[in-house]
Amino acid sequence: MPFVYLDAWRTDEVPALQDFSGLVVLGGEMHAHKMDEYPFLRVVRDLMREAVDEEMPVFGICLGGQILAAAMGSEVGASAEREIGFYRLTPTEAGKTDKVLAAHASDALVFQFHEDTFDLPDGAELLFSTPAVPHQAFRMGDRAYGVQFHPEVTRTEVVAWAELAGGDEVLEPEWGITIQELITQADRHLAKSQEAGREAFARFIELVERAERG
Hints:
Layout: E1 23-25, H1 40-53, E2 58-61, H2 63-71, E3 76-87, E4 90-91, H3 93-97, E5 110-118, E6 125-129, E7 137-140, E8 144-147, H4 155-164, H5 168-175, H6 179-213
Helix pairs in contact: 1-2, 4-6
């Protein structure tokens, strides 16, 4: 499927939604509850709100999921407990049968790297949780999804993100983990996580194609 990739923090020009059939908003080191500090996040939030209103398929990942929750009127803020590394998700009954994310109801662990979380938006269907962060994934209506975890992550990104966060000098005292421990986890769990992630994205593309056909 053809797509356009846009670094929202690098441009003031956002394409018109009517030129597209779906919207995916990825993660970042910014905080969705600090839009005064990151004004471009307001543009992304409003774009996601418009997409939901237009019943366009939407997939928000980590920061993208938090922005989607904010767009739906929920509070976003610091989590009582940070998550970094690979975690097992607990699916709700809706999560087990969801047409996009059901693959993550398997025993595959998912990669997490976040310190913020969100309240569940009014009218949203909760799909997955973890003990520390109960709102891991939700669906608004039939076409909009927000997740805290990273179904798209690669081994290279696990290492790069850890280094970008400050490496062991920051990770060990503040997050309680080292880069080598993250690599060890990735080598153990990433293959199954990526398999579930590929399945989820394939199902999301099918959702986009069905929406195109009306």
